[in-house]
Design a protein that fits this description.
The chain has five helices and four strands; from the N terminus they run βαβαβαβαα. By secondary structure, the chain is of the alpha/beta class.
Length: 107
């Protein structure tokens, strides 16, 4: 299976780092190769230009940016979603990873 790149975007890139760690652990347990990383909203464009991103997940605190990202990602065919508030609050890496996988499968 080819390595997947999952980018999480939040306001500062800090609160999501724990979620990234939990998602990486869940991916390892599934035997899934994934590059999972978090960036601040202001760093997102640079990363989209420099990496092949397979899916982008927005933290609930930046849900207001969804339309702006949808316009950027649409032409690139990159799926986008807002992380479920409960899963984010509980730092449920397994559920958020499943959300990312479902988006990639549907694409």
């Amino acid at each position: 299976m080819e390595k997947k790149t999952i980018m999480l975007v939040c306001s500062a890139g800090m609160s999501t780092s724990l979620l990234v760690t939990k998602m990486e652990k869940a991916a390892q347990e599934k035997g899934m190769e994934a590059d999972i990383f978090a960036v601040s909203a202001s760093e997102a464009d640079v990363n989209l230009d420099s990496k092949k991103v397979d899916v982008l997940l927005l933290g609930p605190q930046v849900r207001f940016l969804e339309k702006q990202f949808a316009e950027k990602l649409g032409p690139k065919g990159i799926p986008l979603a807002i992380i479920n508030m409960a899963d984010y609050g509980m730092m449920n890496g397994e559920k958020v990873l499943m959300q990312a996988e479902e988006l990639m499968e549907g694409n």
